[in-house]
Amino acid sequence: MRIPLSWLREYAQVPADATAEDVMADLVRVGLEEEDVHRPLDGMSGPIVVGEVLEKVPEPQSNGKTINWCQVRVAPEGRPQPLSGEGIDPSGVQGIVCGADNFEVGDKVIVTLPGAVLPGDFRISPRKTYGHVSAGMIASARELGLGEDHDGIIVLSSLGFSPEHGNDPEAGTDVFDLLHLRDEAAEINVTADRGYAFSIRGVAREYSLATGTSFTDPASLVTAPEADGDGYPVRLEDRAPIYGVPGCDRFVARTVTGIDPTRPTPPWMSARLRLAGMRSISLAVDISNYVMWELGQPLHFYDADTLQGDIVVRRAQEGERLTTLDGKDRALSAEDLLITDDRGPIGLAGVMGGGETEVSEATTTVLIESAHFDPVSMGRTRRRHRLPSEASKRNERGVDWEVADEAAERAVQLLVELAGGTPGPGITDVGTRPEPTVVELPASFPAAVMGVEYTEEQIERTLTDLGATVEKTTAARPGPDGGAAGTVFTVTSPPWRSDLEIREDLVEEIGRLVGYDEIPSTVPVAPPGRGLTRPQADRRRVLQGLADAGLTEVLAYPFVSAAQNRFFGSATAEEGEAQRMVHLANPISAEFGYLRTSLLPGLLEIARRNHSRGFRDLALYESGSVFLPGEHLGSASIPPLGARPADEVLAGLEAGIPDQPRHVAAVFTGHDSVAGPGHAPRAWDWQDAIGTALDVGALLGVELTVTQGHHQAFHPGRTARLSLAGGDGTVVGVAGELLPTWLESADLPARTVALELDLDALIAAAAGVVVAQTLSTFPPTSQDVALVVPADTVAAEVLATLREGAGELLEDISLFDVYAGPGVPEGQKSLAFSLRFRAPDRTLTADEASGARAAATALAAERHGAVQR
Length: 869
Fold this sequence. Notes:
CATH architecture of the largest domain: 2-Layer Sandwich
Number of strands: 40
Distance between the termini: 87 Å
CATH superfamily of the largest domain: Bira Bifunctional Protein, Domain 2
Helix content: 10-25%
């Protein structure tokens, strides 16, 4: 939002010597962000004056071009030239070569004299060209930095300067003053919740609040006549509001007849609009934009002679189309709010008008629309049609519903004053204005939230200055929220602040206007008993444990391709299970149009990128959500706003949300350490992936069972299925070496290993508190056993059988050798296990340990046909 300072000074007490930087510094104190400064004079200096063309002689050139040798008066007639310098003729008449031809003898033009500097450091000096010494330049809008038009030089009569209008400037007049180029503008960034600041009215109010000076509301300077019901007929027929409220709740219409379409926009108005960042189009259009910029109320002007029948505000019907002012033919949605007449749509309400009723150079009667629309409906229409406009920018952020009639009257006044129009008979004002929001604010609540002891006087004065109506009462007893008895303010929000809905909103305004610098930086003390929840603490323990083990945490995008989802699937999916996935309606890239079902695609892409840049030894991990839809995904329709949906509707919405468990995954490439003197690093292998997964379980006090597994993204013989020990053996993850052919295609090192675990399932299975086992002071007894079993027997199953058969004396068991070869029958293999026995209350004898080992071996022989080697 650009704010010309001359415009702001009309309604706020801005010092005469204040610069745009000064104004922005004041506005920053009330939370408006500074963006830029705009000065038309930047890059321009020196003598730039009005010139009168005395003579124009066309001279054809050998290159086929025709130039004009002109004599231009640049000083008042009958008086000497007040300027001096090289190339400036004391007679006040300059000889100038001009290539443009859109002017005639007697026209007033803009002349840049020798010594002037134009934007781009273009310096004007006498120069010999086409056989003449050209002492100056007749300027175009582009050369002066006033616009992009380059159809020819500026003729002042086209800007409204002429004897007929009583403002014919004499030769030698300073152009900077004539075109109001000494003004400047401060540009601020307006956030979505502060739409009222998209106007001079709103910014002037904020400036007065920031500086403690008085403010003149421009709307208060306009006295709008009462509606009489005799104006242009308008009907509001949004009978079934889509978003919970009517699309249009107030529509003011005024008519102005007898407009002179040939009148130009006054220079002061076009200068302000140009400085505000808007292009001057025509007087009628410029007036609608000027009022919108001044009061914040978007207007739309219709050529009243093109209207057919009553104006009706309604939703679009199936198959309707509209050609908007930008010349595009648009297919309309049933959610679009329209302005229509008997022929059909004539405008997208609050966004952009239609071409059929556009104000043109032949328009003599104008119908003014000043309406209040539902912000949600406006925002959805603007996004649906990708049609940003200054009107939609304001309407979708909320407009003051009380200012519609004042804005229409202001437009009528300007059309009468500047375009010679006459107010038409009758005034239309239909609809029901919204009820203002009323908020109860205990006087003690702002201090409790902000940590600043605001006085009751400060609170009342601040809210009143904001524009709210404040009533002060005394509560005899504590309120339902536990607030203490005492003063309570009943605050009615001003109509231009639709964002002030709850008491926290009011507290934010109090903190903003009293001063953010008053808020202490002391961190509040957390109430007792409100630390981390157990799942939060468990997640932190796992992530910290992985970091302590030397892994590096990374963060990947959750967006993947359908092929990646199908290949990596889910870490807990059963073999052969079809992979469902969530398709994005508006992805950031067509290639990555789905939400991930596994963390591995993003993690491996990060590994690949690092590997391509020379980082070969990597141990990366990530924790995040995956998205696993069920049979039902999404909902058939979105319930309307403004009312709580029924329980069955909420249940349907909940059922359509995909399951989003939090997973943890890791990837290892290269070696576990850096090579050094006397040290050869070890390459990561599948055992590291499994060991890290077991460490995650240990951090949570959860025992994991490792069995031979299968996953299409992993090596068929080096894949472990990880499940919860005991119970139903729920599968919680996968670990091992990734598929070699895929690694080669993905440009990743061979033998890259990975793991992925369902962290939520592990935390759910955790006891909450990890209790360390009591260490026995008695010595252990170790014995080994080698068992010959069929080659397809899973070693983990034999290990589990031995653990079961050995009984309570077994403290630990591990597999330390697998052998197949001479001495072992063909089709069989030898599994060697180390068993450690210990009793908590005595020293074991050799016979006790041997007995436990024999029991374990017997059970293995019974279940697996194991024969002791």
